[in-house]
Design brief:
The complex is a heterodimer of chains A (537) and B (116). With 537 residues, chain A is an alpha+beta fold. Chain A is built from 12 helices and 21 strands. Helix content of chain B is 42%, strand content 26%. Classes of the chains: A alpha+beta (537), B alpha/beta (116). At the A-B interface, helix 3 and helix 4 of A face helix 2 and helix 3 of B.
Chain lengths: 537, 116
């Protein structure tokens, strides 16, 4: 026969049911486990007249009791063992039955642990107290389920948002690194983003060349400790650029529970960020190249402009003579020069010159040569003295590696008498009436080469009627074809001039240029082509 | 360059102002949460997180901030973020924090918003 129920049992039970309903509603509203524990502690106190309870939680992952409510430093009693089944379990913690330990398995595999002590003089826990406690634990378990669902939903939304954030940040970083002017800022930004997007606790970027470290960037600031270097949780990505190796390394992926291994997405993100830095470095290099090329093109344009301004727009008409000249500048701008200058005494100065080197410096030196020539020609000096003065002026005006080869001649148009000096220039060809070619090459070293009064030699000839004189630069004889053969080796200019000796000055020059173009084919013109042709009619 | 994490806090006009320096990650987030909990248990329900000296936040640090926002909302309180770097502002927007928390340019602006 069952013992009779206490008189107030039904009333107490009815009151408790009402409290349980309210308690369940409050528990269900809790947003965190700790919040639930706090509410649950209140329910335990009010329903069981206990002292402050200790509420603990044993998760599957952590495998140790974590205190959610109660006095600091109070551990969950080791004597309370987990039940073999999923049922509630209660154990007395003292002989007077005033202190008990309870465990309640929860639906996610974790366990709720409660330590309760009777308030004196409440006496030992009764069977009714234990029944009430079991009901309260069931309430907790029931309220715990929707909390987990809400938490899972929240984690899912967080995870989806985080994926969106990672993609967004990857795109933004690509744009930002392309805008940064300093490479150091670019590296630092990429490292920060790589660490934050993968939840790495630290990041390192080392730039090295042939195994030697050149630069190092760390995130966050400070040194990377040996512990980080030796951690098993690390990933890296590297690329090569201009003999330098860029190595990104991330350490210790964080989670709320501690460090965890990096996953596949982290590898993808790190590689993508490293590729963005690589692409940015390449783009900077290409931009620099383009700017340098633009500057070179501008220099060339300036040089070409200087050169074209000092070349004669037209040659003077010399009675009894047919004269024609041409200058075809190459793309890289050389320093060819030619002119035909009538002097006040009736003579004509014929000049052709070629400055060593190319570009603006060569063009400027040609300009100087042109100015000195104009200044010295009218002085009553000999051709040798003129050449020596030019040598001295060019020597002073040029750097050690620059000089000018030049052929200077003074023609008396009435008599056909021609006095010439070659300062290191190609021989000038005089086609005689008998069809033979005489080379005019007497002279000396190129102008500006030696700082001395060089004893230049001169040639003196008389150009008879029908005889022709060809002055040219090495752009003619050294024009190359696609096989890199020299024009003069295949088509000797000396023979060409004989073959074409019936033509007028312009016809001859046109024929010569056409033949050089035919010979060169698709090969680029590497030097200026300049020629001056004089026929005594 | 981002520094190691540190924080300072003060209570102004009944609002807890937490100012951080450096990377807001697991360590940083936990430190903020602890500082918040200390004041929250004492009844503080208005919180300003000043991120002027923090330019990088990872998702673990962010999860701590979300927890704080949740707790404040449940308790009828409010959080306001201030001095946000554009990258962090975008991050908080994408993670949906501004649905539940405010933002202001400066701490003083945030204090005005919270006292309104």
């Amino acid at each position: 026969m069952l013992p009779p129920l206490p008189q107030d049992f039904v009333e107490r039970l009815a009151g408790q049911i009402s409290q349980f309903e309210e308690g369940f509603e409050t528990l269900s509203k809790a947003s965190t486990l700790k919040d639930m524990a706090r509410v649950f502690a209140g329910l335990l106190r009010s329903n069981l007249q206990t002292a402050e309870p200790g509420i603990f939680h044993l998760s599957i992952e952590q495998k140790r009791w974590e205190r959610f409510y109660g006095e600091d430093g109070q551990p969950f009693p080791e004597t309370v063992t987990l039940p073999a089944t999923n049922n509630f379990s209660l154990q007395h913690l003292d002989n007077t039955h005033t202190r008990i330990g309870v465990v309640q398995p929860l639906t996610d595999g974790s366990t709720l642990g409660v330590v309760l002590a009777r308030k004196t003089p409440g006496g030992p826990f009764t069977e009714i107290d234990k029944l009430s406690l079991q009901l309260l634990l069931q309430l907790y378990a029931n309220a715990h389920r929707p909390l987990l669902q809400r938490r899972n939903e929240k984690e899912l939304v967080f995870s989806l948002n985080h994926r969106v954030l990672q993609l967004n940040s990857l795109i933004d970083t690509g744009i930002e690194v392309s805008k940064l002017k300093r490479e150091g800022s670019l590296h630092q930004l990429a490292l920060e983003r790589a660490a934050s997007l993968t939840n790495a606790s630290r990041g390192l970027l080392v730039v090295s060349s042939k195994g030697q470290e050149i630069e190092r960037y760390a995130f966050p600031g400070g040194k990377i400790s040996v512990d980080h270097i030796n951690t098993v949780h690390r990933i890296q990505s590297s690329f090569e650029f201009f003999n330098n190796t860029y190595t990104f390394e991330l350490f210790e992926k964080e989670s709320r529970a501690g460090t965890v291994p990096f996953d596949e997405t982290d590898h993808i993100l790190l590689n993508a960020l490293a590729r963005q830095v690589h692409a940015s470095l390449e783009n900077r290099y290409l931009l620099r190249q383009a700017l340098e090329k633009q500057k070179i093109d501008q220099d060339i344009a300036v040089a070409a402009s200087i050169q074209q301004r000092i070349l004669p727009e037209s040659l003077p008409n010399i009675e009894g003579y047919d004269l024609f000249g041409i200058n075809i500048p190459s793309k890289s701008v050389g320093g060819d020069y030619y002119d035909c200058i009538p002097l006040s005494d009736g003579r004509i100065a014929l000049v052709i010159a070629d400055v060593s080197g190319k570009g603006v410096p060569a063009a400027l030196l040609v300009s100087s040569f042109h100015a000195y020539l104009g200044a010295y020609l009218e002085g009553a000096v000999s051709l040798v003295q003129l050449t020596q003065r030019l040598n001295d002026a060019i020597y002073r005006a040029s750097t050690d590696d620059r000089f000018i080869t030049a052929f200077l001649a003074l023609l008396d148009p009435k008599t056909g008498k021609l006095e010439s000096v070659s300062a290191g220039h190609n021989p000038v060809y005089l086609v005689k009436s008998n069809g033979k070619v005489q080379e005019l090459s007497a002279g000396g070293v190129a102008l500006g080469m030696l700082d001395m009064e060089f004893p230049y030699q001169t040639d003196e000839v008389v150009i008879e009627r029908g005889e022709r004189l060809l002055l040219y630069t090495d752009g003619v004889t050294e024009a190359i074809n696609e096989q890199e053969e020299l024009y003069d080796n295949i088509v000797p200019v000396k023979e060409f001039i004989i073959k074409k000796r019936q033509q007028s000055a312009q016809e001859f020059i046109d024929a010569l240029i056409s033949d050089i173009k035919r010979f060169s084919g698709a090969a680029p013109q590497v030097d200026d082509i300049t020629a001056l042709y004089l026929i005594r009619c | 360059m981002e520094q190691q994490f540190s924080l300072s806090s003060e209570v102004r006009n009944n609002c807890l102002v937490i100012t951080t320096t450096g990377y807001v990650n697991n360590v940083g987030g936990e430190a903020i949460a602890k500082e918040f909990a200390r004041h929250f248990e004492g009844g503080t329900k208005k919180v300003i997180i000043n991120l002027a000296q923090s330019k990088v936040v990872n998702s673990i640090g962010m999860s701590f901030l979300i927890d704080i926002v949740d707790q404040l909302n449940d308790a009828g309180g409010k959080m306001v973020f201030t001095n946000l770097d554009p990258a962090i502002h975008k991050m908080l927007s994408i993670m949906g924090l501004f649905q539940f928390a405010g933002k202001a340019n400066t701490v003083d602006d945030a204090l005005k918003e919270l006292s309104a």
